[in-house]
Design a protein that fits this description.
17 strands, mainly beta, 155 residues, 52% strand, globular, 0% helix, eleven-stranded parallel beta sheet
């Protein structure tokens, strides 16, 4: 399934954008940045999920949750292709590849990376401007710059 959205979008705190790739890859493309106040759930049962923002920034507000959950029938990852400003929670319970081509990404929220899972940052710049991190998974950079602008480094 491929969905395309153009124009401004702001979700409510009770909203859920669910990626369900039972029959094919679940792809949602937005032509412009948007604000997530609810939950974005990357949870395909057979194929990967892909959230793309072509221009602008995906703002995950202080009430927002972006969650990458396990895909029981496929080995691999989910995709987030966007400049991300994370003020809320990013849960990586299944490998997540974050491509930052659209612009720099920033974190002042919470990032949880589960055991044996990875948050892989590709291309561009990823700024850690505060916030917290937990879990025993890995934060990895590939052809990307990580900038940690805080006196206390994440564990």
């Amino acid at each position: 399934r491929v969905l395309f959205r153009s124009g401004a979008l702001t979700t409510s705190a009770s909203s859920v954008i669910l990626f369900d790739g039972t029959l094919s890859h679940a792809v949602f493309t937005s032509s412009a940045g948007f604000t997530n106040n609810g939950k974005i759930l990357l949870q395909s049962s057979y194929y990967y999920s892909d959230l793309k923002v072509n221009a602008g920034t995906l703002i995950n507000s202080s009430t927002g949750i972006i969650q990458s959950d396990p895909n029981p029938y496929s080995t691999g990852y989910h995709l987030l292709e966007a400049a991300l400003n994370n003020l809320g929670i990013l849960n990586v319970n299944y490998n997540l590849r974050h491509y930052t081509n659209a612009g720099p990404s920033n974190n002042t929220g919470t990032i949880n990376i589960a055991n044996n899972q990875n948050l892989d940052i590709y291309n561009g710049t990823w700024n850690w401007d505060g916030g917290t991190a937990s879990g025993s998974g890995l934060l990895r950079f590939f052809s990307a710059t990580g900038s940690f602008n805080t006196p206390v480094m994440p564990p």
